[in-house]
Design a protein that fits this description.
Layout: H1 6-20, H2 22-44, H3 48-63, H4 65-80, H5 84-114, H6 116-131, H7 138-145, H8 149-174, H9 177-185, H10 190-223, H11 232-242, H12 245-273, H13 275-286, H14 300-320, E1 333-338, H15 342-357, E2 361-366, H16 369-378, E3 383-389, H17 394-400, E4 404-412, E5 415-421, E6 443-445, H18 452-464, E7 472-474, H19 478-490, E8 497-501, H20 505-508, E9 511-513, E10 526-532, H21 535-538, H22 540-547, H23 553-566, H24 571-581, H25 585-589, E11 608-611, H26 615-630, E12 636-639, H27 642-651, E13 656-662, H28 667-673, E14 677-685, E15 688-694, H29 703-708, E16 716-718, H30 725-738, E17 744-746, H31 750-763, E18 769-773, H32 777-780, E19 783-785, E20 798-804, H33 807-810, H34 812-819, H35 825-838, H36 843-853, H37 857-861
Parallel strand pairs: 1-2, 1-3, 6-7, 11-12, 16-17
Antiparallel strand pairs: 3-10, 4-10, 5-8, 5-9, 13-20, 14-20, 15-18, 15-19
Length: about 850
């Protein structure tokens, strides 16, 4: 029999509707989304206990005291299992869907009851709507409305409408015909007959239909979670895709509680609004006897007062509890979509946390690959972090690339593979699988059917290796595949699974990646960030952050592990734990001029900091000034010669300095004042003192060579400040040991010495200067440190933080920071250079630039909880 291509006709019809009625779908989407957002805002704004009270008052009004108590207990349980937000989102979706359904279905049912031709025409349509598998409605829903709330809501309306139409039609048809005839005989208008006779008598049946609408709507809302609809459906979908029993049970329990509440309340509402229902309720209460007080219900006016009072309290708390602080993102929403793969989930929640810290309002949605790319092409998803290109997701990218923006690869290179446990000793390549299907149960355990790896496996790999007739590819999900792997591995059974690298499974299990000598899986992918068309224009700063985002394998696997350990529903907690172990990464990934810093516990303290005009002293003092100000301190800095600074430090006029060269260079000062000082600790190790000459002076390599070329240097050594330990040692020890007493040692200052060096270097003139390491001059000029074979400069120094003896008690937090502070030669050299480039009077600008180039340095130097 020839094939009737019904599916193609349906596809053509859908495409025509998309092309010609896009304006209608946009209008419907706008209206329904506004309704949903309004109801959700009302339900999620109050504190949960206040809304529980409102629900309990309604239950008391409709069913009595026991129902009120159970209602409060049930919703309290939902809150305790952290499903409150999702439950309110699902309730919002149900309410909107039911309002639309009832508004459409009841008039249709009335029309069908009063017109048999209409009833006959509607019946097959209702049959189709009611018997079509519910998930099928999601497909046109995505195409017409994108992903998220809208396709779920529209599919819910379609799926739940038939019972309301049928029950309305049935209820009106069942009204006694003699009553209708009597009304007509008295000359009653048909409209009045409908509203005064038929509808009141049919109301119990209509309410039963509405009850069924609510139940079907709730069941469909859960299914809609597959396409990004918020609420309990999303929780259930995440639980199923990750095989998370705990989350699945908790989300399912919330669905049950919500369903029971809605079912009991709509059933009781029928008794309140229907004359027949009120009569039956009165008879039932009369039969209760002594237990009647339990089912006493407050009057409608009393119940309404209770609801209004609670609503006003909830609204008032919400208004007064708002935080008016503004941050970089200005509260702008950004939607992040991801396929439920480990690296996708981990990086999505990492960016969710980063964007939240930068003031945005990101939302993460788990979706199947097809729905994700379709939704992003429509503009419903702003960014996805886990596009495997150019191979795995090639089919989707080729289809939608004109509607996407590639923000760049953040990980390179991945690989796709089939893996087996290493206890399968004789299976090393894909060729080794041939002829062993019975051993593996005739199957390869796969992942999501929409994944590009699955398509490559079925269309190419199995064919290239002649495995297509032997093996069946079991389509499931990543979580299901890993569950199967764990079960088989524990029992030491053979199993072949689709995997990829990097993946944490290779750390947890001893697995063999089967070699692919024919290259059927391709050369490997890079992991890309993809944005919707126009995203970089709308959010240029975020796009810039993402284009510069990179993770190495160690970072990625550790992030995945933290997210997995935190558990389903707590992904962001895992990300936060990871960020605590990797301080500064938020600033690195998303540098912001408006980044805020936590205040120290001693914020407001005003330490006095002294420093000599030496490069490392200037650099570190201005660095700590900047860091302390970010932590809320009010430091005062003073530039002093070395002698006055030590004197001020010993008297307590200076609280701390960071440039103590000990145990050699400043030994005389330490010996004189050490009883009044405290050695806080060394932050740099090891320094050296020396005389340096330009490297173009070829035959001067040691201090002995300097003596022999005295005339060439005009008998001068250019020194620094006269009070420094290095100058004293040069005159008292070094010069006599090498016969340099005839040299004139000029005493000026560090800046004068460096100016002389720069002038002589530019003219290629011989010059000998007093220097030390570390110093930025060695980066700027090609210099030779003159060797000191007699070790007259003494032992190397450490650079230490020194404080007045009262410093640890006056500034305990600052003291703790300094004790743990260290700088590498690269860090110190780059800091000195930035300050030099910024120029005199602009030291703070140089420090700020250096901090921006070293994200996380503030948290590293001055950690606060």
């Amino acid at each position: 029999m020839p094939r009737i291509d019904v599916g193609s006709w349906a596809n053509t019809c859908v495409e025509w509707l998309r092309g010609h009625l896009a304006w209608l779908f946009d209008f419907v989407s706008h209206v329904l989304t506004a309704m949903y957002n309004g109801i959700e805002a009302v339900l999620t704004a109050p504190q949960p206990f206040l809304l529980m009270g409102i629900f309990a008052v309604l239950a008391w009004w409709l069913r009595g005291l026991p129902a009120a108590v159970l209602t409060f207990a049930g919703f309290a349980l939902i809150d305790s299992i952290e499903q409150w937000q999702a439950t309110m989102q699902s309730l919002s979706l149900v309410l909107v869907a039911c309002i639309i359904t009832i508004v459409v279905a009841v008039p249709l049912g009335i029309w069908a009851a009063r017109n048999r031709v209409v009833g006959g025409a509607l019946r097959p349509v209702l049959d189709l709507m009611q018997t079509m598998p519910a998930m099928v409605y999601l497909i046109p829903g995505i195409l017409f409305f994108g992903i998220g709330v809208m396709p779920g809501m529209v599919a819910t309306v379609i799926f739940s409408m038939p019972p309301a139409v049928r029950m309305t039609e049935l209820g009106i048809r069942q009204v006694d015909g003699e009553l209708v005839e009597a009304a007509e005989a008295f000359g009653t208008h048909p409209r009045r007959t409908l509203f005064r006779v038929q509808l009141p008598l049919a109301l119990p049946t209509i309410m039963a239909g509405i009850n069924q609408v609510i139940m079907l709507a709730l069941s469909m809302v859960v299914i809609a979670g597959m396409v990004g609809a918020e609420g309990l459906g999303s929780s259930v979908y995440n639980a199923v895709s990750s095989v998370n029993v705990a989350l699945g049970f908790e989300a399912g329990l919330a669905v049950v509680i919500l369903a029971m509440y809605l079912d009991r309340m709509t059933g009781a509402l029928n008794e309140r609004v229907s004359p027949l229902g009120r009569r039956a309720l009165a008879k039932a209460q009369a039969a209760l006897g002594g237990a009647k007080f339990l089912y006493w219900k407050p009057a409608t006016s009393v119940a309404m007062v209770g609801v209004v009072v609670l609503a006003l309290v909830a609204g008032g708390l919400n208004v007064f509890g708002k935080d008016g602080a503004k941050t970089d993102g200005g509260g702008r929403p950004i939607t992040l979509g991801y396929v439920n793969w480990d690296e996708g989930k981990a990086t999505t929640y990492l960016w969710k946390e980063i964007l939240e810290q930068r003031g945005f309002k990101p939302k993460a949605q788990a979706l199947e690959a097809g729905a994700l790319f379709t939704g992003q092409a429509r503009g419903d998803i702003d960014v996805q972090t886990n596009a495997w290109l150019p191979t795995t997701h090639a089919e989707y990218y080729k289809k939608y690339q004109d509607k996407l923006e590639d923000l760049g690869a953040w990980y390179d290179k991945t690989s796709l593979e089939i893996a087996v446990p290493s206890y399968m000793k004789d299976v090393k390549t894909l060729d080794d699988l041939k002829g062993r299907a019975d051993e593996f149960g005739g199957k390869i355990t796969g992942i999501e059917p929409g994944a590009g790896e699955m398509k490559i496996l079925k269309d190419k790999v199995l064919k290239d290796y002649g495995l297509a007739d032997e093996y069946k590819v079991a389509e499931s999900s990543t979580a299901s595949m890993l569950t199967e792997l764990d079960r088989a591995y524990a029992a030491k059974k053979p199993i072949a699974v689709t995997l990829w690298s990097p993946h944490w499974a290779y750390d947890k299990y001893d697995l063999t990646k089967l070699e692919d000598p024919k290259g059927a899986f391709g050369s490997g992918d890079s992991l890309h960030l993809l944005g919707r068309k126009g995203f970089a224009k709308d959010e240029p700063e975020v796009a810039k952050w993402m284009k510069n985002f990179h993770l190495d394998e160690k970072q990625l696997t550790s992030l995945e592990n933290e997210v997995k350990s935190a558990g389903e529903g707590h992904e962001q907690d895992g990300v936060r734990n990871w960020l605590k172990k990797n301080p500064g990464l938020v600033d690195k990934f998303a540098p912001s001029a408006n980044a805020t810093y936590a205040k120290g516990k001693d914020a407001g303290a005003a330490p006095n900091i002294g420093y000599p005009a030496w490069d490392e002293g200037i650099a570190t003092t201005y660095l700590w000034k900047n860091v302390l100000e970010k932590r809320g301190y009010q430091p005062n800095i003073r530039n002093l010669d070395v002698g006055p600074m030590w004197t001020g430090l010993s008297s307590g006029q200076i609280d701390v300095e960071f440039d103590g060269w000990l145990p050699v260079a400043q030994k005389q000062y330490w010996d004189q004042y050490k009883d009044d000082l405290v050695d806080i600790g060394a932050w740099y190790d090891k320094t050296s003192l020396e005389i340096a000459v330009p490297s173009y002076v070829k035959d001067v390599k040691t201090l002995d060579d300097l003596r022999e070329h005295q005339d060439e240097f005009q008998g001068k050594i250019i020194g620094i400040e006269p009070g420094t330990g290095e100058m004293k040692r040069l005159k008292d020890t070094v010069a006599p040991a090498y016969g340099l007493q005839d040299f004139q040692i000029t005493e000026a200052g560090t800046s004068s010495m460096l100016a002389e060096l720069d002038r002589a270097y530019a003219k290629k003139e011989p010059i000998a200067v007093v220097l030390w390491s570390p110093h930025w001059a060695y980066s700027k000029y090609d210099l030779t440190k003159l060797a000191d074979p007699k070790h007259t400069w003494g032992d190397n120094n450490q650079i230490k933080s020194l404080g007045h003896k009262s410093f640890p008690e006056k500034f305990p937090e600052f003291d703790g920071w300094l004790k743990n502070w260290k700088m590498s030669p690269e860090e110190l050299g780059s800091l000195e250079k930035e300050i030099q480039d910024a120029g005199k009077g602009h030291e703070n600008d140089g420090v700020e630039k250096w901090i921006d180039a070293h994200p996380g340095i503030v948290d590293k130097m001055a950690p606060v909880k």
